[in-house]
Backbone:
């Protein structure tokens, strides 16, 4: 009896439909347009960040360090958003840029002042001295960059940039009393690290500007 071979049925492949490109604005573009049309301004974002940092300082005075750390983190994030929003929306003004830079310096100084008052109340003179050094040299880090750029020299070198200082102080505030994770306090060590890195960064920027000006002749 002859074997009958059955041919497998041919598979009918459906033709692939070409992907249709979305027409119209993307979600990001829609959000950008909504923000531009809104009444939100970069100055509003800057002032909101400043208010949150004031709240952080008040919470430090009230010994509510974890909440102070959260307020400081959110306020610092607002400080990074105002510049981006200014460029994205086209609502930026020269005064807005000036206000943003001024409030950045005030915010850091106000929170550190509250931290210094806390250490003074505990009679921790070493930590108070470190806070004073941190405030002074954090300002010098910003000043050296501004003065260098006025001379035509880019000066972003160094360890203790603004984001790094924010991270260090945030860790110190959030874990000032261990944050229920253990019996340790990181506020004083954070202040010591902040002061040391700010001093080093100031020296780095002075040396960098000197080198660049000498090279320029």
Residues:
């Amino acid at each position: 009896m002859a074997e009958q071979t059955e041919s497998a049925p041919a598979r009918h492949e459906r033709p692939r439909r070409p992907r249709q490109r979305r027409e119209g604005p993307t979600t990001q573009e829609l959000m950008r347009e909504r923000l531009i049309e809104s009444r939100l301004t970069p100055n509003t974002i800057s002032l909101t960040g400043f208010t949150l940092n004031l709240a952080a300082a008040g919470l430090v005075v009230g010994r509510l360090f974890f909440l102070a750390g959260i307020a400081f983190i959110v306020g610092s994030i607002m400080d990074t958003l105002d510049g981006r929003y200014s460029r994205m929306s086209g609502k930026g003004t020269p005064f807005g840029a000036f206000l943003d830079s001024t409030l950045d310096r005030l915010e850091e100084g106000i929170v550190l002042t509250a931290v210094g008052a806390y250490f003074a109340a505990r009679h921790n003179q070493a930590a108070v001295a470190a806070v004073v050094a941190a405030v002074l040299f954090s300002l010098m880090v910003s000043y050296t960059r501004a003065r260098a750029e006025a001379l035509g020299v880019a000066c972003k070198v160094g360890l203790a940039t603004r984001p790094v200082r924010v991270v260090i102080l945030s860790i110190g505030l959030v874990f000032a009393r261990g944050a229920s994770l253990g019996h340790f306090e990181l506020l004083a060590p954070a202040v010591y690290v902040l002061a040391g890195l700010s001093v080093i960064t100031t020296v780095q920027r002075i040396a960098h500007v000197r080198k660049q000006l000498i090279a320029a002749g």
